[in-house]
Structures are given as structure tokens and as C-alpha cells.
């Protein structure tokens, strides 16, 4: 019985394989078909991309429809972060001398300070000849005060026989001498207090204990981190007329800028433009940092507003965006764009109203091969 079953199985296998093996001329089925790539993400020969729905959700692909509109024209200028003159200041000694620590020690960068707080002391530095001259002057003043004091004592004893004006004159002379003596003594022994001119934090500290400094040397910079200025430089002044505002990209966020004013004189062949910056995004900025400022003008440009992250490069180094043409199909579009702000651009060519542009995970879609 087992032998009969084995024979039947062998016969069935041979009957299945015989037509393919014994097909005669003209009865074959052509060359073997290429294997199917499956349902995974892939790029078609025309450059479009097939991306199944599960893969789209896994990559986090998001699209938005675009509409043409009149958008404010924007110029991108180089700039840097500067101090707000009303919310920051410098600490400089009026005379040269040796630095001594303040009541709480010498402040370090990042330390909050209050207006009027003593940050350090400067002991005046005087030469031996100058100090000797001041000491001699102090000795002369003291001797003269003794003489005037004795004379005033005698006049008061003879108050009934001398004019009152002589007594008053001697008293005024004695008071004047006392004031001059105190001023001279303070010049020899006194020290200059370096105080904070505004409330804020120490942005830069250049003082150490025992350091000898010159007059007008900057030892501390104080800044309010919530109020800063952005200074942009325009090398084509005729293009920056009628400024309506500005923006700045900081740490993935767009910081709105308020136009404060434009200078009337060139600096190094450029026209300085000041903007005021406020907000939480200022935490990512530092004094002197170079930035790219988007200056918004009153002129407009017709285009489609899309995030700057949607712009990609194709193998020919052309700027493209990915447009969703079907639920699981995307195609690249070569576009021309102009900057709008730190996070968006105006696409002036290559898109039509209603196109769904990939605004998130565009870089991942661009990498599919």
C-alpha cells in the first residue's frame, strides 16, 4: 500500500514538471519575468517615489496644500547681537590702579547684579614723587588749620571787643581747611568703587584680584538677557527702504524683530540697521554672535509660502520640493524661491494652487532610492 502511494506521488510530480520541460519551439513563454520589488518604499525611473501608508506614518511624513498669495518681500542680511544701550552697560574705572574684590568677591559671568551694587574696588596707583607731594600738601594744610584754629579760639575769647565778621571769617576758613584735608587724605588712602550701572547679569568679566588697570579700561559688561539688539548691515542701502520688520531663526524657532531705526551714515561701506529682540528665544543668543537676519520690506512678491525645511536638492543640485500626487506617490518639482523669514520661503515658480507639499520628513523622502 505504501509503495502504491509513493508511485502516485512521483507520477503527479512528473506530470507537473513535464509541460515546462517538453514545450516545443514556439510554445515557450518568453524570458523569465523580473522579480517584483514588493510593497516597500522605492524610487521609480522617472524620479517619483512610491511610499506606502505604513512607511509614511513611520517616517512622520506631513503635507500641506499651498495657495499663491502676495507675500512681503524679504532680504537676508548679515548681522550680530549687540547690547541694548538702555538695558546694559560697561564698568570702567575713572583712574588707574590696583583691583580689589568687592564685598561679595569679584563677579563671574552669568551672575545677576543689581544697580548700584559694588562689584570691585580700584586702589589708585600713584608714583613716589606724586605721593610725596600729596603728603607734603597734607602736612601744610594741617599746619595751616592749626594756626587758623588757634586764631579762632582767641577771637572767640575776645568776642566783646572784636568785630563779629572776623570770627565768622576765621570759622569759615577753618571749615574750608578741614574739607581740603579730608579730600587730600582720601586721595592718598581712598579707593574707587566700581558699581553696576543697571540691573542684569555679568556678560563678561575681565578683572582679577591684584590686577593693575588703566583708566577707562572695561572690566565688566552687564546686559539684560531679555532685551537685546540685532544690528544688520546693508551693503545696498537703496534696497532697504520702507522696512516693516524682521525675523531671526534661533534654535529651530523664528524670533520676530521690531525695527528700531536705520543709521544715516555708512560704517565700513555698510548701512547699520537696528532691530529690537525680546522673548524666550533670546536664551540662545550671545553678545557679538553673528546671525542671518530676514528683513521684511513693504514690497510684495507673488508666491506660495512653504517651510524652508521643505526645500531639497536633487542629483543635479537643483532646488526641489516633494509634492504628493497620489495617496502613496510623491514627485519632485524644481522650484525657484525667495526667503521670507527664518522658517519660510516664497516659492515663485514650480508649484500650482492646491499642490500638497511635503513639509515634514522631506529629507527622508529625498533619500529613498
Automatic annotation (TrEMBL):
Residues 1-20 form the signal peptide. One of its GO terms (biological process) is copper ion export. GO terms for cellular component: cell envelope. SUPFAM superfamilies: HlyD-like secretion proteins. This is RND efflux pump membrane fusion protein barrel-sandwich domain-containing protein. InterPro entries: MFP_Cation_Efflux. Residues 22-49 are annotated as: Disordered. It comes from the Bacteria. Keywords: Signal, Transport.
